[in-house]
Amino acid sequence: MHEDFRALFDGHATRVVRLAALLGAEDPEDVAQEAFCRLFEKRDRLRGEIAEAGAYLNRTVVNLVRDRHRRSMTHRRLGLLNRRDDERQEPSAEELGVRADDHRRVSAALRAIAPRRREAVVLRYWLDLSYADIAVVMGTSLGSAKSSVSRGLDDLYAHLEES
Question: What structural domains and CATH numbers belong to the chain?
Fold first, then answer.
């Protein structure tokens, strides 16, 4: 059982930390750790279903980040997301500079939009979840999920055009 959980952790840990960071958690590693602790407590109910465990982790992370936002009115900052891509050639210094600038602009625009809309956009375009899955993770209706994604994108584009 512990080996199965270890494999589950190894398969989802990086993604869960990045999800928490994209949702605006100031402490994405702590959010991920708490999500895995809660999953470990519920492991018997999931009976090894990896898909259910992934959905449970997504929902738990969204809820934990929401809770942290509710408790503090200060802005959350997104950490730099380092992705290793061993198969690509080293990018040029100019390309790295452009990427870093783009990342800063998108991160700033994400921070500027309402938390629920940010969640919807991140779940849709970073995790590539369907609208039905977004509705489940966010605890809302399908129509509200679609609306949150659409309005979040509108807000994101507006902030990007300003900068």
Answer: 1-73 (1.10.1740), 94-163 (1.10.10.10)
